Write the structure tokens for this entry.
Amino acid sequence: MRFFMTSSLLALGFVATSFAQPPAPPPPAAQPAPPFPQPLYRMNDVARALNLTPEQINRINEETVRLQSRYRRDFDAIGRLDERERLNRTQELLQTYNTDWRKAANDVFNETQRQRYQQLWLQYEGFNSFNDPDVRRRLNLTDPQREQLREATQWSERRMRELTERGRAEEGQRLYDDYLRERQERLGRILTPEQIQTWRQLTGDAYPFRVQFNTNPR
């Protein structure tokens, strides 16, 4: 979300000895945009579902901009790490960013709004929710389950990339709904019935998220 100008000498009616000019340095590589999570309150009717007032929306917008500005420096700094270190550090930064965002939101939302927003966040994050230490503790996940959830997360990320690239506006929501059903089926094969019951308590009533897809797929 980033010109160089070059100049040349013109010969003015005389012959001059030319000197080789050092090549201009290449422009710095553009840094990838930090992977800040999508603020759910900006998605379809979530703010209305939470009964957020205009004042609350303004305040949480300000907090979101402030935190993203602060964390952007941290994300830029890890661009020089190797891929594995970068992925691990990115995950750590996202966890701390989400923690700080929730703390800021706690000062804006009332108790009912806080509880429901957390439920919606877990729903939207899907398999990524199981990286949350509190979720893991509440579900008492085993090591084999954690490995299965890690593989399911990779499947989910691949599937969402495919949907984003291939989904047309008129069919995008249907594809996303199909993805959600398959995600739920996979989750049911990993968690026990008791864990599923706890998960439903954590996530509450299902919310009809609507997702924007590429209108000009390749």
About this structure: Residues 132-204 form one domain.
